[in-house]
Amino acid sequence: MEKTWRWFGKKDPITLDMLRQIGVEGIVTALYDVPNNEIWQTEDILDLKKFIEDAGLRWSVVESVPVSESIKYGGEDRNLLIENYKQTLKNLGEAGIKTVCYNFMPVIDWVRTDLHKTLPDGTQTLYFDKIKFAYFDCKILKRKGAEKDYSPEEMQQVNELESLITEVEKEKLIDTIIVKTQSFISRNIVNGNEDPVEAFRKLLTLYENVDREKLRENLRYFLQEIIPTAEKQGIQMCIHPDDPPFPVFGLPRIVSDEDDIRWILESIESPANGFTFCAGSLSAGIQNDVVDLAKKFVKRSFFVHLRSTEIKENGDFVEASHLGGRANLTELIRIFEKENPNVPMRVDHGKLMLDDVAKNYNPGYSFLGRMFALAQVEGMMAVVRNEVKTGII
To answer: What is the pTM of this model?
Structure first.
């Protein structure tokens, strides 16, 4: 597998020179300064590509070309926005960038309730606390009918939390769930919104009439429109699974398990229609056997994210060590190194450790924590490659 790294452009405090020194081969990035829905211009793509190549690296994967909310819920302007998307793909293809990761998660890309959960060794990691999430949903967002999504026991805990939580903790929960984790990805909710909760409510109303089947059909429509362009340009489109892989805020999720993945890949039969195998997202769903999914979809996975999670008995989940958790990264590496050895791979979500803690990195995207994870993964890769070479597997 090609060792890649998610890099946030020329303003990223983690430089390309630093990445070369730690063994990174390819860069995963995007034109983060271009507003959602606008066309990525050829000159901007080529400028960034040259900047990366001048550092001795290659632009391996685009993550992501954002899919407009209007395309997801089926707005009146979706055809215009799809045309913009197709032109961006054309410009990327002509620039020689051939792998594009995207997602189809409504409103919110990924959800955590704590960005600095302290572990016994003093490092910090990302955490999802189901009761805190339910509290936000029911008591802060005050989503209509939210209580029905939780058990009586969970609602009792939510009500108990109501009497204990401070205003500072409430603000931190808002900042974590709908500001910090979203501002550098979807950019739907960003710092500076006078009322991010109200802005989030307005986004949710766009999906009032969109159920699971409707969202699936909107994805099929999107793929029917863009896949011919991707095929012509030799681009591999790879959809990212839901994070976490279960419904949140009453929104449908359609990339959460084997049935979803199979439906997407079969809905448009094309070598350009593929999957981003994110082991971390998939492992956060108790319904998923991650190794089994890798065996079934290894050939249609055009991009791999290696991380792992551990699910608690109460429904909480935590980002685990890359050597532990439910994902079983060693076995995943065996599958991909044998069946799809040239696929780009990036370590995903590193812990905050040592000097990372004082830096203002995007959540989950530390330097030392990811470098440590990359070293762990590279060690696993070396062992597996020797197994392949000697015929053990």
So the answer is: 0.96
